[in-house]
Amino acid sequence: MEIQNLTIPTDHLNAKDLLKEWAWLFEPRLEIVMITKLGDAFLIEPQSGEIFFLDTLDGELESIADSIENFRQLLNDKDFVIDYFSLELLAPVIHLTMPENTVYSFKEPPVLGGELSSHNLELFDVQVHFDDMGKLWGEIDSIDLDEVKNQNNA
């Protein structure tokens, strides 16, 4: 399967706008390399060329390659593609036509109890998806677990 069948067009997207709700996780210097159909992003740090993976499902940013050349090598690794492009989850809907500027996202995110299944996916505007997931994970990140534990023990 071709990588372009697993991603959405990004040439019209502005990284600062798209990633603004993720400022709690990383500085807005990263630029978009590609966005998967499931709304995750591969990002590049322009100065170093380091490639990052923004996992919007888990609210995490992971360094995956130290250069675009190494990233291209990863894209030739079948296991990497299956994992990072969530092929098992995407498989039931991959043949469907997607309107412009949309990604598949969870109607109810798994972190909030939603099922990790293609039955829980629907199309969302790409900006809405990145905004909503960034806000959700930002709120979760700001929870003081010690305070919650103390309240439960009171």
Automatic annotation (TrEMBL):
Boundaries of every T6SS immunity protein Tdi1 C-terminal domain copy: 66-131
Q: Which domain of life is it from?
A: Bacteria
| Annotated source species | Pelistega indica
What name appears for this protein in its UniProt entry?
Answer: T6SS immunity protein Tdi1 C-terminal domain-containing protein
